[in-house]
Amino acid sequence: MSESERRASGARASETGASGTDPATDAFVAHRNLLFTVAYEMLGSAADAEDVLQETWLRWIEVDPAEVRDRRAYLVRITTRQALNRLRAASRRREAYVGQWLPEPLLTAPDVAEDVELAESVSMAMMLVLETLSPTERAVFVLREAFDVGYDEIAAAVGKNPAAVRQIAHRARRHVDARRPRRVVSPSEARAALESFRNAVEARDLRGLLDVLAPDVVLVSDGGGVKRAALRPVVGAGKVARFYLGGSAKAGVAVTCEPTAVNGDPALAVYLDGEFDGVMALRVEDGRVTGLYYVRNPEKLTRVASETHLTLR
Questions:
Q1: How many whole angstroms separate alpha carbon 282 and alpha carbon 154?
Q2: Are strands 213-222 and 234-235 parallel, antiparallel or unpaired?
Q3: For 85-123, what is the HEC assignment?
């Protein structure tokens, strides 16, 4: 719980004479990780998701919990509405973003990667697919597909009737299915590909890099106009290998990498001459790397030092 949430909680406890927390605080704390996951999947930004939780909390403490039949559903509804408002505003801001935009990476625990459903829903590849949906389509898809929310409840959250929500869900699902990344690799295969990629990068081994990259691999890098990054996706093993190895060679820096996990994906924390530079998530299919998502924008690297707890339940 944030500092402002704690202050508000303390004020409510004082008002009710409670020695600890009150029912509203208990409900919010119990579902906080879920609400954060909902907001993050809709927005792709941990900072914006935290702001949405602040807004949700401020609206929630104005409600009498005794009058709420399903507190989880009610909190999800508030969070969705606030996230949808931010998503509409963010879509306009991203049009002016310098270069490629990637979701803010989150350091995730190993159990996230083991939860196939959760790992797929928050993966960098899936989050980029969600970026191609309209704000309402994204909200409906996330609530229905990831969190299994009923159509009536989604309708109340997005301000549509249930029939319209069903149509939106069908359209969004069809759109996502056409672009959905495949997750057909075991954890051991992912680790092996990660290690091969890491060794090739650190040794500047072009042949080794070409061996681990899929022919149609795609590299997306996000510098936010602050760090050097490709303005468009780089496609193809040869182009990706030359872009990556050529850039470090030209800069004359030593590249080292440490294995980690972000958004349920195998990833590398990248260091240039010993200084932390960014995080690269890898998508692995059939033992080869098919996607590379390199976040260098410093403003997006605040959540890679400590684990973020995500949940779909």
A1: 33
A2: antiparallel
A3: HHHHHHHHHHCCCCCCCCCCCCECCHHHHHCHHHHHHHC
Amino acid at position 232, single letter: R
Question: Whole-prediction pTM value?
Answer: 0.88
CB-based contacts of 30, cutoff 8 Å, min separation 6: none
User: 280, 200 in Cβ contact below 8 A?
Assistant: no
Segment-wise mean pLDDT, segments of 10 residues, the chain, 313 residues: 52 45 90 97 95 97 90 96 91 82 93 84 93 95 95 95 97 93 76 94 94 96 92 95 79 89 93 95 92 96 94 89
The CA angle 91-93-94, to the nearest 5 degrees, is 65
Q: How far apart are CA 122 and CA 129, in angstroms?
A: 11
Does residue 112 contact residue 243 with C-beta atoms inside 8 Å? no
Closest by CA position to 251, among listed 287, 218, 225, 227: 227
How many of the other CB atoms lie within 10 Å of CB of 113?
A: 18
**Nearest CA to 150 among 137, 166, 138?**
166
Q: How far apart are CA 114 and CA 266, in angstroms?
A: 12
| Cα gap 155→177, rounded to integer Å | 22
Both tokens of residue 257? Answer: 């990498």
Calpha distance 41→49 (Å, rounded): 9
Return d(Cα 234, Cα 28) in angstroms, integer. 43
The CA-atom distances, in angstroms, between 278 and each of 20, 60, 104, 253, 283 are 41, 37, 11, 14, 17
